[in-house]
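Customer escalation, tier 2.

The customer says the design service returned an amino acid string that "doesn't look like it belongs to this structure." They asked us to rerun it and document both sides in this ticket. The original structure tokens are below, unchanged.
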């Protein structure tokens, strides 16, 4: 099928242009058009054959019902068996706008539209193009978001075109949409109104009018009732992880995770971060180290979630276009549009979360075999390097062995090497690595890749944290740090110098992450 593209003025679309699109709609064709939320893929809601084509073009599961769009409130009376006083009030207050209401369905609505449900979802979009198009068509218009099923919803013509060209009759180019997340779907049939899908109209705005409003899917409220909520949705191609915790912890967590992913990678993995404006500069600093593999995408400020909502879907698609295999997304306050943002990120990530790192000092662990030479030296050297940086954020460093017993002292040669560098490790006592150690640590540097393998054979769940020192700081340490055990003082001194450079580099890099506010370069 050839798809016709029609460009219109989004504020003052000409009737002449829209009339031809309206005619296609009325007679059973598919027309994609802009609304104030996202682009919709419209079909005449009264023609089952036309509605079938919508499911087909999107590849949408047949049990996920469509929203019927109207241009006038009066139309609702012919589509619904009953219009309650609460529904009337909401229509008066919030239509046209990003609020979809459920009504008991009238027999004129084909089964295909509601996927057999007894209710029909109706909304009146607040966009000059959508309104005029529907009005000119003179029929109610069933319109899901104009994307291939499962992909992020379309907030621009270009995305609709990429997903649906060749599958629909007309795509109307009305520029970018405003709100960026879909309408709020509200069920007012029960004693307490219930949001089935948070969206462009906030919970607060609804509560102001309705009093208590529940949100389906929240703790204690049972599963969501909107059939669409059970499908994987909005998903980018890369693995999306929603990062939790307080904003600065989120920032540190993302930077550490990105550093690990980018450092350990031999396959040149690409990582993208969906960032709040507040944390942007910190990410850009890390980006300088990984210009070809780390990408920073700004969503918007925490105190203006309308920007975040508006950019969310296009950012997910942008991350895909950059080839990001892992996308680390900050989470935002749940107020206002934040509830919809949270809902979309949760769905897009398939519920995968990255917990924010804990409050408190940065925890670093050095690991070798016996915990009597290399790792205690590294521990002492890291502590000194951190002090010398004058970093105001505390760091806690420990060292452990992959196969050792508790209570051994550092070898005399190790103690002497360190003394020469002004570091006292006389009081060091050895300890084997435990699961708790790995759980607590933010960063684990092993002296060789063999140590890493040994650790991960026992504790595979920590594969993300543990890297050989040469991977954390490849510019300073090349390959395994050799074991001086049993060799002479000179060999110890040589190892000490390698470790000194490595620890200084590691301290610098990590201080950038945790001491961002203090602006250490
Ligand atoms: O902002 C929007 O709502 C956009 C624009 C194009 O208007 N449309 C949109 O449609 O997001 P769609 O199909 O992508 O999402 C419709 C949602 C789905 O989660 C669906 O399950 C739910 O509305 N829905 C539709 N009819 C329903 C019904 N009778 N009962 C419960 N949920 C319903
Ligand atoms: Mg959709």
């Amino acid at each position: 099928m050839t798809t016709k593209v029609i460009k219109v003025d989004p504020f003052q679309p000409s009737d002449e242009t829209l009339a031809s699109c309206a005619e296609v709609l009325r007679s059973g064709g598919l027309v994609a058009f802009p609304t104030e939320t996202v682009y919709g893929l419209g079909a005449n809601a009264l023609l089952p054959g036309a509605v079938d084509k919508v499911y087909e073009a999107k590849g949408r599961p047949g049990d996920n019902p469509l929203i019927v769009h109207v241009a006038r409130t009066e139309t609702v009376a012919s589509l619904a068996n009953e219009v309650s006083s609460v529904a009337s009030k909401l229509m008066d207050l919030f239509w046209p706008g990003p609020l979809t209401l459920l009504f008991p369905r009238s027999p004129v609505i084909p089964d295909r539209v509601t996927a057999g449900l007894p209710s029909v979802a109706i909304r009146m979009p607040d966009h000059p193009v959508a309104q005029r198009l529907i009005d000119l068509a003179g029929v109610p218009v069933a319109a899901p978001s104009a994307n291939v099923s499962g992909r992020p919803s379309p907030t621009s013509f270009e995305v609709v075109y990429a997903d649906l060209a060749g599958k629909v009759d007309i795509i109307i180019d009305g520029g970018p949409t405003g709100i960026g997340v879909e309408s709020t779907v509200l069920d007012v049939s029960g004693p307490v109104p219930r949001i089935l899908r948070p969206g462009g109209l906030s919970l607060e705005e609804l509560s102001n009018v309705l009093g208590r409003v529940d949100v389906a899917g929240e703790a204690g409220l049972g599963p969501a009732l909107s059939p669409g909520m059970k499908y994987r949705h909005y998903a980018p191609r890369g693995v999306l992880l929603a990062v939790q915790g307080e904003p600065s912890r989120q920032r540190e967590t993302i930077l550490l995770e990105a550093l690990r992913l980018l450092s350990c990678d031999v396959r040149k993995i690409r990582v993208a971060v969906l960032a709040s404006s507040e944390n942007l500069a910190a990410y850009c600093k890390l980006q300088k180290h990984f210009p070809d593999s780390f990408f920073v995408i700004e969503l918007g400020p925490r105190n203006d979630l309308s920007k975040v909502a508006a950019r969310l879907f296009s950012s997910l698609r942008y991350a895909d276009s950059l080839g990001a295999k892992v996308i680390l997304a900050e989470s935002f306050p749940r107020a206002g549009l934040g509830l919809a943002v949270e809902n979309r990120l949760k769905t897009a990530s398939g519920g995968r979360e990255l917990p924010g790192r804990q409050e408190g000092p940065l925890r670093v662990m050095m690991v070798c075999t016996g915990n009597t030479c290399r790792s205690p030296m590294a521990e002492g050297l890291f502590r000194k390097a951190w002090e010398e940086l004058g970093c105001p954020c505390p760091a806690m460093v420990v060292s452990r062995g992959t196969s050792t017993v508790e209570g051994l002292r550092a070898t005399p040669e190790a103690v002497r090497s360190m003394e020469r560098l002004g570091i006292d490790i006389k009081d060091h006592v050895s300890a084997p690595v435990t699961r708790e150690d790995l759980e607590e640590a933010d960063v684990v540097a092993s002296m060789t890749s063999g140590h890493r393998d040994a650790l991960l054979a026992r504790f595979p769940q920590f594969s993300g944290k543990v890297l050989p020192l040469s991977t954390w700081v490849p510019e300073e340490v090349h390959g395994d740090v050799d074991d001086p055990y049993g060799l002479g003082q000179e060999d110890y001194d040589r190892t000490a110098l390698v470790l000194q450079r490595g620890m200084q580099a590691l301290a610098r890099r990590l201080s950038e992450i945790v001491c961002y506010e203090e602006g250490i370069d």
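Tier 2 assessment: The sequence is consistent with the input. The pocket of threonylcarbamoyladenylate (ligand 1) is lined by residues 35, 37-38, 40, 64-67, 98, 100, 102, 114, 117, 119-121, 125, 143-145, 182-183, 185, 196-197, 225-229 (CB under 6 Å). The two ends are 57 Å apart (CA to CA). Sent an explanation to the customer and offered a walkthrough call.
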